[in-house]
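Q: I have two molecules that I believe assemble together. Could you output structure tokens for the complex as a whole instead of separate predictions?
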Amino acid sequence: MKLASLRGGGRDGRLVIVSRDLARCLAVPGIAPTMQAALDDWDVVAPRLAERAAALEASPALPESMAFAAAACAAPLPRAFHWVDGSAYVNHVELVRKARGAEMPASFWTDPLVYQGGSDDLLGAHDDVPFGDEAWGIDLEAEIAVITDAVPMATGVDAAASHIKLLTLVNDWSLRNLIPGELAKGFGFYQSKPSTSFAPVAVTPDELGDAWRDCKVHLPLLSCINGAEFGRPDAGTDMTFNFAQLIAHVTKTRRLGAGAIVGSGTVSNYDRSRGASCLAEKRTLELIEAGKALTPFLKFGDRVTIEMRSADGRNIFGTLDNRVVRAGG
Amino acid sequence: MKLASLRGGGRDGRLVIVSRDLARCLAVPGIAPTMQAALDDWDVVAPRLAERAAALEASPALPESMAFAAAACAAPLPRAFHWVDGSAYVNHVELVRKARGAEMPASFWTDPLVYQGGSDDLLGAHDDVPFGDEAWGIDLEAEIAVITDAVPMATGVDAAASHIKLLTLVNDWSLRNLIPGELAKGFGFYQSKPSTSFAPVAVTPDELGDAWRDCKVHLPLLSCINGAEFGRPDAGTDMTFNFAQLIAHVTKTRRLGAGAIVGSGTVSNYDRSRGASCLAEKRTLELIEAGKALTPFLKFGDRVTIEMRSADGRNIFGTLDNRVVRAGG
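A: Yes, here they are, computed for all two components at once.
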């Protein structure tokens, strides 16, 4: 089942079921008006949504259905109550730290690293993304995220998997030149991690078929900058901590409310021929190989697209297609 | 005007207006069913709430009114979309860092320090607070917080003040023995800052009268542990960054959604006779003065109360009265 939130009808958008080919959609106000409402009561709501999804699939011209347009979408959760982003591709963390001249402790291979993100202003797949200054070092971070129902405190890895209700894609915009100063203060990211962009569609794990196993997504994540391919690392390869391990980590001292979003961190492969999911990684490799970072950060007007296709070429989550713009411009 | 969210009626609670003496309350489903709904449309909703608040004040026995009980309250926002906590009492930051053997950069006096907190599970004023292990170093942090409407990106200090719609009190529980390891990883707090407790009532700034000036609250914040006074620092004294400065800082690279909560950080005075608002500060002073931290962290069964009284002795926000308990116990 694929779900999206159309803009309008209030700050939380309007929940629709989306057909597998992303061509049609169906509002379901009688079942759940918003994605958050669906997640709040998932066990009851999901079977009812699945029934309507099957009807839409069986008859794309269902009278109440509409054409689906990614450009009409808000983020699946336009505002969420919890957004925590892991750094599950530890190979990426190691590289980026290297670029900052920071050593990575060995414990990073066994103890997940996460940061708490701001979740009140999540951006839609076609929204312009405003930044105050190009000098901040604007970077993409292409990632996968899961959305959970309510998760009890101290949930173990085995129990965590069943709390994953939806998956989606994320561009976790980062301001590289604000990061060193902010992290030096010791309290983590805040200004350096502005609002995050989301794919138009969130899908239930079964939509991924065999590509969803071991709580990882075994498919390439494609990022393009201004239409040119930037990276297509496989999200199932080199993921040190799977989503169940991330959830177990984040519930050590707290429970999660329904609709919590847990990110993978920048997808990254050891195989450098796959490219990268963020400029920081590419620049680090350049620094290591050529003694100098050559690829610039993003500029106003640049377009970043991110998508994931199934083995048979279908676009699973729709495409993030965001333009970097000057704030207030 | 004083507002609270009673438990029940869904995960966001049920908005009530509370009388100034905290004795009576009034549900207002026809105006706004929840605190978040009120904040989403504050300019329209607030005058209507104020009208009902005046009616309740004029006639405490208003037929639709009920007795108010802090124990029936969820947090004012039982789940919020954004919770960012400052460290505005820099004197406290300096001390606590000293205890960790960490130097504080001079820039901390001019550049606010904040961390992004988890906001999906905010605890009510009388809720038990579960922790997995006493060895984690369970500590209180008594603070003041403001709740904003939607705030644009790059809001300046002057414009920020008008976005402060409500104030409340916070106990930002901290797990001191998890902090050094977590901060060493570089991404800030996560496991070491579990769910936060809130006062039963949030109030509009005018409720504070003259005590609200310069975007600071000029009143003592009283914390007690197991009934014994622990601290009563004045929240208007030694606050290096006021709430407008904190809001200006957090909107440098993002806008805030309606209902964002911005905390002051642990209230702390140079005048040590006022006591402290967290055990870490008291332990640090002991370490400095006696060579050894003497006061233990909290234990299961300990009770922490936090409140603030006006110059004429009225309890402004109601009392946080939380018991520390063993998770799953």
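A: One point stands out. The first helix of chain A runs from residue 35 to 40.
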